[in-house]
Amino acid sequence: MVPYNIPIIGHTLNYLFNAEKFLVECRQQVNTIAGNEVAHEVYRTDTFRRFGATDSFPLYRVFKSLEYPETLQQIIKTVREAIAAKLPSYTGRIQKQFMISINKEIGDCFNPKLIITANGNFSSMIARPVADILVGQEISKNEDVVKAFADFTKDFASILVIPPILSFIHPKVHTQVITLPLRFGWNPIWKHVITLKGNLKPVLEKRLKDKEILGDKYEPPLDIIEYLLNDPEHGTKVITDDYLNKICEFLFIIVVVSIHTTSRFMTSALYDFAGRPELWDDIYEEQVRIDKECNGELSSQHINKMVKLDSFVRESLRTFDSVVATIPHRCMKSYTFKNGMTIPKGRMVITYLMDIHYNTTAYGPEPRSFLPYYGLENNFSASKIDKNYFTFGSGKHACPGRFFAVNEIKIGMHKLILNYHIKTPSGKIEKKIHSGPLASPPVSGLIFENRKK
């Protein structure tokens, strides 16, 4: 163990306020921080299990189904089969929903307009196309449902505002304390479940009725609720309250792992773009050319041609500046890495992102510098995983929704860059906000101004 000077509190202050320095010290003495040398092994073997964060991030206290391993497997299967595999079919709907959000959240900027991004504008922008895909085009028109999707993760985070100081006694003590409100009936996210249930029930009932009447002539809508109705694990003949609870819980788990993360990444990418005027013309010209080719209606082929924007997004994700990955892994049995280091059973393994994303072997003598066209020059797309790029994990534990997330970010940025000049209030690169080892986008706001057509 790394020695410390403060009794009881131990390393808490160092961890919260200088996580990178603390982990460098840990790396020299404790084999629980997986850096550039061994992280890929953690993600590529069954010995390590994801979601070892249940002590510090007890989502299972809200969604009971997460206590069962098969729930996560079903979610991964759904994302792969019903979203990732059908991306081309969703492209037109995604850009349509983005334009609705852009007009609503930003609108006309004849005069420069400061948009305070901390207000969750981009959560709503991401939530609208996600709602379209999850619950269909009819329900996604309901602003209350879009708001429920956008606010869900933010409200869940309010349960977790207590820093993990009590973990010095035992991690489970911290878990018990932060979940006390839930056990006493305070649940800030239940209102969102009620909103979704109220809008979902009549639509599901109508679909079941249409199926019964039309038979083979029934034309199934393309969305996740239709996929679930036809899935052996989630299908039904009657829409009961229990069934609605089950479906809503399943959908909101997808919301947690999609909208919050994607909106943070897109917001950060916009700040990265806005603070680098030397890149504006080059990336804008690519978007103009593609817009002319597709006459304003993007297809998957056109999105694939956004090679400069894709490379820029990849670099923004690489330099997001979180010191570690959000979700650690638990070692299920003693494991010896190829370099000879051994981790005992039960040990939590944290992915040291900065050691991976800022390693000099891959990114040169100044790996912390922003390399906008590194991906383009090395044929690495933003959604492609490799041992030097762990934004979406690696191996069998890689995020199955990464293709959808990157497409969303690219479509959103494409539309925004085409329509607006975007810059930071200071005219410089804004610093990200750090809380312990995790990073969040800046909060200074972005200035939008209409482009001359």
UniProtKB/TrEMBL annotation:
**Does this entry carry the keyword ATP-binding?**
no
MF terms in GO: heme binding; iron ion binding; monooxygenase activity; oxidoreductase activity, acting on paired donors, with incorporation or reduction of molecular oxygen
Is this entry keyworded Oxidoreductase? yes
Give the source's domain of life in one word: Eukaryota
Which keywords are on file for this protein? Heme, Iron, Metal-binding, Monooxygenase, Oxidoreductase
Cofactors needed by this protein, per the record, are: heme
Q: Sorted alphabetically, which CDD domains does this protein's record hold?
A: CYP503A1-like
Question: Where does the chain bind heme?
Answer: 399
**The family this protein is said to belong to:** Belongs to the cytochrome P450 family.
Name recorded for this polypeptide: Cytochrome P450
